[in-house]
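Hey, I was hoping to borrow your eyes for a little while. For a while now I've been wondering how a particular protein folds. The fold is given in discrete form, as structure tokens running alongside the sequence. Could you read through the record and tell me how the tokens relate to the sequence? Take your time with it, there's no hurry, and the full record follows here:
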Amino acid sequence: MAAHQVKLHGQALVAAFQFLTRLPIPITVPFESPVLTRSVLYFPIAGAFIGAVVAAAGWLLQLLLPPWPAAVLLLALWTALSGGLHLDGWMDTADGVLSHRSRERMLEIMKDSRVGAMGVLAAVLLLLFKASLLAELLADERPGLVLPLIAAAPIWGRAWMAIAIAGWPNARQGEGIGALFVGVRKSSAVLSLVIGGLITCLCVLACRQSFETSILMMLACLLSTLVVGGALAIWLTKKLGGLTGDTYGAMNEAVEAVILLTAVITLGTTYLFL
């Protein structure tokens, strides 16, 4: 029994990386309920991989290029690491929800593989916003504070996806990516947030910051995630009658952006880190 549980969790870890990143892992795992419902535990770990790569690339680009070119290249790498999966969800969600049609029609629009004007506009605005925030952070001369906050964004975005999967109903009963995760326990989703918090603290401590600073950064990320993620989940559920795979991706993008915004605001309040 114990060996079976270990096997399931090993498969769940691999599934989280295969689902959320483009890291080539040559292992075949069954994308079935017993594995996928456990994989949400490891969403923040997949996010930490993306965050670590992005932070390391940011440190290097910071040395070689001015902030804006570095930010654009860094954002391109960031998007590529997830294969644009969540950005696609952001665009599909914008196309559907901002069409102001009936619930059924909005879900149909989101299911369409073609991208409409609202989706393109939403993507452009999001990418410009994230690039501007990254440029501001890369211009900061305190890499020990900046880099862990950049790394934290994909961690919390994916931790929130676990909360959204467990906390709100699926808008397409028995259909879509969301249906694959039916049965996720709320305790697993909460543990995902805890893991995200622990990884964030470790990232800050690894950059030689104090324990108090690590706790402050973690709490700032947690609060931003809960407020923005919760507000979006409630609004989208009201519009669609639940959440979908596209809305999970959209919320990930929104949480990433708000974590970067929180980082810019927090680092601007210099006295907090004196």
